[in-house]
Every structure is written in C-alpha cells, then in structure tokens.
Amino acid sequence: MTRRQYFVVILILGALSTIGPFSIDMYLPAFPAIARDLRTSVSQVQLSLTSYFIGIAFGQLLYGPLIDRFGRKKPLYAGLAVYLLATFGCATAGSIEVLIGMRLLQALGGCVGLVAAQALVRDLFPVGKIASVFSLLTLVIAVSPMIAPTVGGYATVALGWHSIFLILAGITVLMLLAIHYLLPDGRPADASLSLRPQAVMGSFFTVLRQPQFLTYALAGGIATSAPFAYIAGSPDVMMNIYHVSAQQYGWIFSFIAIAILAPNQLNHVLLKRFSSEQLVYAAMLYQTLMGILLVLGVWAGWFGVYGLIAMIFLFLCGQGLISPNASALSMAPFERHAGSAAALMGSFRMAFGAVASGTVSALHNGTALPMVGTMLACVLTGLTILLIGQQYKERKRARVLA
C-alpha cells in the first residue's frame, strides 16, 4: 500500500466511523429549537438521541455476520441506503414520535459504517499496527465534534433544524461514491459462514469465549460511554442552565472535543514505551479521579460555566487513550470472525451509551449532577471490570505455570 493509498483508506474508514458522531453531534445545538417546533420538552428530544444509540447497538449485531458472509461493501451499500432514507424522514418529521422513530431507523442503517470500518482495519493492516491505525481513525472521529456542532448551530439559526438532516444526506451521498471508487474490498465474502441463527450465534459465542475480548470490550465499552452522558446532558446544561446560545454551544462542544483529539495523538508516542494494557489502565484510573472531583465540584457549587467546561475537558482527556487501545486489544485475537467481533464491540459501546444517555434524561432535575454523575459511574464501572478481568488473566496464567 503506497503512502497515498494509506492516506485515502484511513480517510474513508475515518469518514465511515464518523457517521455516528456527525448524526449525534450536529443536531445537539438544535434541541431547544426542535422542542419548540414540535411542541415538546428538551428531555423528550433527548429520547431521539437514546433511540439512536439503541439502533446502533442492535444494528451492529446484524451487520457483523453480514459483512463476514457477503464481504464488506455490499452490506455497506445497503446500510447507507437505509440511513439516507431515514435521514430524509428526520428532516420532514412533524412530531417528536416520528423523529424518535426515524432516528432509530437512521441508526440501524448508519451503524454499518462502524462495523465495516473496524473489520477493514483488521483486514488491511497487520496486527502490530492496529492500535496505531485506530488512533488515526480516532483522530478523524475526534475532529467531527469540533465541526459538527458548530455547523449544526449555525445551520439551525440560518436555515432551521430540518436543514441539519439535509446536510447529513449530502455527506452520505459523497461517502457512497468514495466507497465505490476508492475503498479496497478487504476480506472477500466467505460462503462457508452460515446466516442461520444458530450459526450466527455460534460466531458470536466464539468471540465472547475469548477472555481478552470480553474484558476490553466490556471495560472499554462502559468507560467510553461517559462521553454519551455528556452529549445527552450538555445541551440542557449549557443552554438552559448556563444560558449559552446555540452558536456558543457549538464552539464549546468543539473546544471540549480537543480533549479527546490531543491525547489520542499522544497515544502514538506512548505506544513506543508502554503497552496498550498499561495505557488503558492508567487512563481509566485518571478519569475516575477526575470524575470524583467533577461530581464533588458540581455538588458543592464550585464551578461556573468556565470551571465546568475546564473540568469536563480534563475528564475527557482520558478517552483519547482508552478508546483506540481497548479497541485494538478487543480485535487482536480475531481474523476470521473480525466482523462479529467488531459488531459485538460496537454494540456493547452503543448499548452502554444508550443506557448512559437514558439515565441522564431519566434523572433530569435542572442541575448538572445527572450528567456528571453518570459520567463518573461509567468510568468507575469500566475500571472495576478491567481489574476483575486482569485478575482472572493472572490466575489463569498461574494455573498454566503450575
């Protein structure tokens, strides 16, 4: 693979991975406008975010076996076509119920990008390079929250919230062209893999029986759902409690995205001296400590808007190290079942994200505590699972040596 081909492939895989972040982040500044237009509350609009997470979680389980059986591109085309139709449905929604339903369908189509991108990383790059490639993908993903909310804020003010979904539709068309003409096929279709329920479940169980996958997919998935709690709660906290404008919220969101972007690029350097296992543990421990300070500060009223932004920024710095390394450790044991592994890993993350966002909505009390409390709970739970998994691994190793 030439340098130019490498760059193009990373860019396209990153774009596929950003379908979810763009679909989530771009419409966040429009929450108050959507609530007014559809005669509902912001907490009800938050449920359209939760439905999107639910759709991604279940949809990935569908696409994992499909991209292993039919190759990577055919399911990509089908899923993105569904996403495109649902995006137009969101743009024309006349009630909150329709919007919630269309967001669910949008997620069921768009999540194919997440599964295919991660499987193609396993297809196209050697195992030793996977963590570095995931870091590059995370770089592309991390740029999207710097762009999407800002674009969404200005589009909402200038053209109305419906225009956000038309912009997403245009991006999807460009992505389909890039996939067709520029993206390698990856691992070919495998006709020996059956799509019968028993065979599909067998593939999933093969993946789930791998302790390394289970440890890092669960621990990483729960820990990386902390940003989803922030995403769900921040529109209400920033715009209704601290009274920032839609445009200002977009800029705040873009600034906080740097918290993931910068450490993610530091990951390239750190991997030369430390293992992925060490980096995941250190990042989770750091986030737990920062989360405790964040919750205590909000509860005690230490922070104004700038203090809260600064603390969230510091908290989220750990995500740039957790996500790529946990992903690499989860995917490393697999080749033939890479699609099923990617589907399960992504499904775990989005299911936990749905729980986190739904928890923030359910606990809504007019303060920032539901948001920051859920963020801390996610990371603390992830760290606990990681420690249990590591202890199991050490006990198993001791039994083998004995």
TrEMBL record:
One GO CC term on file: plasma membrane
InterPro entries named among the record's database cross-references: Efflux_drug-R_Bcr/CmlA, MFS, MFS_dom, MFS_trans_sf
This protein's UniProt keywords: Cell membrane, Membrane, Transmembrane, Transmembrane helix, Transport
Any one GO biological process: xenobiotic detoxification by transmembrane export across the plasma membrane
Entry membrane topology: Multi-pass membrane protein
Domain Major facilitator superfamily (MFS) profile: 9-393
Recorded GO MF terms: sodium:proton antiporter activity; xenobiotic transmembrane transporter activity
Transmembrane regions listed in the UniProt entry: 45-64, 76-96, 133-155, 161-183, 213-233, 248-267, 279-302, 308-329, 369-389
Cell location: Cell membrane
PANTHER family: MAJOR FACILITATOR SUPERFAMILY, POLYAMINE TRANSPORTER 2-RELATED
Family: Belongs to the major facilitator superfamily. Bcr/CmlA family.
Name of this protein: Multidrug effflux MFS transporter
Organism in which the protein naturally occurs: Spirosoma rhododendri
